[in-house]
Please model this.
Amino acid sequence: MTVTHNEHAESGHHEAPEVVDGRQRLGIWLFIGGDMISLGALLFTYLYLRGVNSGGHWMSIVGMPSKGITSAGPDTFTPTTLVEQPMANGLNWLIVLVVVVSAALMWLGEKRLRASVNGRGAFRGYAAAATVTAVVAIVLQVMQVRNVPQYWIQSNDSALFAYTSYGSVVLAFGISAIIHFVLLVLLGAGLYVRAGRNVLSYEKWYQARLVRFFWVWIAVSTIVTAIVVTLLNTVH
Amino acid sequence: MTSTIEHSTVSAPALGGGIYRRLNFGTALIAGVVFAVIAWWVAHSLLDSDGRGFSDQVMVITAVGWVVGFELGIGAFTSIGKWFTGRDQTHADEMYLAGKDAGQARYWRFTTDHKVVGVQYIVVTMILLGAGGLLAMGIRTNLLSPGNHFVNQQIYNSFLSVHGMLMILALIVAVAGPWANFVVPIMVGARDMAFPRLNALSLWTLVAAIPLLLGSLAVGGNDMGWVTQAPISNQSGVGFDLFAMAIITFTVSTTVAGVNTICTVLTMRTKGMTLERLPIFVWASSIAAALGLYAFPFFLVVMSLNISDRMNGTSFFIASEGGTGWLQENLFWLMGHPEVYVILLPAVGALLEITTVFARKPLFSYRTSIAGMAGLAGLSVLVWAHHMFTTGWAPALGGPFMVTTEMISIPTGIIFLVLLGTLWRGNIWMRLPMYWVFGFISNFIVGGITGIYLSDIPVDNQMHGTMFVVAHFHYVFVGSVLFGAIGALCFWYPKVTGRFLDERMGKISFWLVFIGTNVTFLAMFVSGLRGMPRRYSSYSLIFEHMNTVSTIGAYVIMAGMLVLLGAVISSWNKGEPSGPNPWGSKTLEWLVPTPVPLENFEVLPVITEDPYTYGEARTNS
Model:
C-alpha cells in the first residue's frame, strides 16, 4: 500500500460538525435498523402465535378471570374455558395519534431551529410539547397494558396469573412501546435543555435531526403495530 | 520569522474534573454490587420469593441493578449525563477519556482509545475462553468413563449450558473484539472508532454480562443447554434468569459494537481508501458486524420473551396456554445460524490477511472473496430451520431449507479457494501465524464438509442430537474460529506490544492444540456415528473408549492453551523486540510506529494503491 501524507488534513485533529453529523446519521439509522429487527421479531411472534393457534388458545384459556378476585387457591379454584375478546382499538389508535402528533411537533421544532437564528426559542417550545405528548403516550400505554386481561390458571397445586397468547403479545408490544416512549421523553427533555444552553442552535441543529429520525421511526412502528393488532386479531 | 519553543517540566495536572475522573474497574465492581444488593432487597421486600430470597422477578431486578450499578461505577453514563444537561465534554475531557498520559491505569477504566479497548477485549476474551475451557474440562472429566460422577447431573447440565454460552460469547468477540478495535481504525486510516465512547460502552457492557453468566451457576445453574429450549426453560431454576439477563446485556454490547464498526469503515476512511482498497479483514469485520445487527435483536427478543413467560405469566412458549416451543426455536435459530457467520467471518478475514503477508502474494481474487463473504452473510439468514428438521416443524419447508443450507457451502467454498489460491505458488514464510492458517485449513475442511452431511435431512434424522453434531460444530468453532483467533493474536501481537510472541512456545502450543482438537473431536465423530446422544452425563459401555480418547484430547488442548497463555504473558514485556513492521506487511497498521500513538496518525495518510502489492513489488524489484 503506497501512502503519502495528506497535506490538507485538518489541524488539531478536529472534525467539521457536518462530518460528525454524517457519521452520527449513519449510526442512528443503523440503530433504527436494529430496532426494526426487534419489532419484526415481535410482529413475527404475534402472527406466528395467531397462525398456529396452539390448542385453540390464541384467545382462550382454561382458568378464572382475575378481576375482582383478591385471593385464590386450589381449594376455591374451578377452572373453565374462557374466551377472550380482542381488545378495544380506541385506546390503541389514540396512542398512535398522540405519538404521531409528538413526532410532528419534534419535526416542526427542528424546522424552526434550522430556519432562522431566532428559531431556538420556538424549538424549545416544540421540544417541550413533543416531550409532554410523549409522556401522555406513556400514560396511555400503561393504561393499555393494564387492560390486557389476566387470568388465574391452575399449575400443579397452586394458582398463577397468566395471559392468553394474544394477551401475551399485546403485553409485549405495550412494554416495548413504553420503553421506547421513555427514551423519547429523555431525548426530548435533553434537547430542550441543550437548546436552553445554546448547545443546539441555528448553526448547530444536527442532533435535533438525529432525534427526529428516531422519533418518526417510533411513530411509524406504533402505526405498524396498531394496524397489525387491529386487522389481524381474531383467528384467521 | 522564526520562533523557539521553550521546554519546561510540566507537573501533572491535578486530578480534578469531577467524580468521573475517579471511576475505574474497582468503583464499578463496588457500585455494581451495591446496586445489585439494593435492587435485591427492594425486590425481595415487595415481591414474592423463596426461602433464599430468590424468585424470577427478584433475580431479574437484581441483575438489572448489577448492570446499572456497574455501568455507573465505571463511568459509562457520564457522557450521557453531560449530554442531557447540555454540558458537552471539553477537549481535555476527551483526552482524559482517551487515556492520554494515563499509563497502565487506562486499561482499568472507561477509556475510549480504540487500542486500549482492543487490549481490554484481548483480556476479556481470554477470561471467557478460560472460564468456558474450565467448564469443558469438567464436562470431559465427567465423561471420562461411564457412570463417572465427577459432578452430579444437574451441575453437569449447568456446566454444558454455561460452557456453551461462554464459548459462544468468547468466539463472537475473539477476533472482532480485539482486532476490529485495535487494527481496523488504523487499517482504514482513521484516528479512532466512529463513536469512541460507545466503543468503551460495548466493552464494559460485555464485562458486566460475564458475572451474570457465571453467577447463574452459583444460584442453581441453568440446565437447559445453551439453546435455552422452551418450554423446558420454564422449569429451570432462577439461574436461568441470570443466564438470560447476561445474554440480553451481551446483545446490547454487541449491537453497539457492530454499529461502531460499520460507521467507522463507511465514514472514516482516509483519502484514497476506496472500498476496493480496504484490507480484507476490514471487509470481513464489517460484513460480520452487519450480520450481527440483523441477528442479535432476535436473541434479545427470544430471551426477553423467555423471561417474561417465567415471571410475568405470559404464554409465548407454553403450549397449554396458546404458546408453542416452535416459536422459541424459530426465534432462537433466526439468530443462531447467522451468529455462526458473525463468529466465523472475522476469523477468516484475519487468516486471509495473514496469508497474503506470509505468502508474499496479493490476495487471490479479492472481489470474489468479498462476494463470498457477502453471499455467506446473505444465505445465512435463510437456513435457520435446518436446526429444526427433527422437531416436526413445517415438514414441507424441509426441502427448501436443505437446499439453502447446502447452497451456503458455495460461498464458503469460494472463500476457501481464495485462501488456497493465495497460498498457491506463494513464497511461504513459515512463521507462527502461518501454522494456525494451515491448522485452520485442515480443520475447516472437516468441520465444513460434515456440515454439508448434516444439512441433508435423511442424515440429519440419524445424527441429530448425537455427538456427531457436537463434533461438527466444535471443528468449526474450535478447529477453525479459535485457530483464526489465535493466528490473529500471533500476527498482530507485535503491533500491540512491540514484541514477538514467543515463537517456540507458540509452536508447542499450536501442535498441542492441533493434535488435541483432532483427537478430541474425531473420537467424538465416532461416538456420534455409533449413536451416542449429546447432553448426557453418563453413557453406555460401548462408548467408553472413544470418550476416554476425547477426554485425553481435551486435556491436550488445555495444555496447549496454557502454553499459549504463558507465551502471551511472558512475551508481553520480555519478548524479542519486533519493531514497527516485523512481517513486512503493507497494510496501514504496520506503517505507523509501535507503540501506536494516541490518534494513530500525526497527519492522515493518502492511499494511492491497494494493500496487497507483494507480487508486484517483487516483480518490480
About this structure: The first helix of chain B runs from residue 25 to 46.
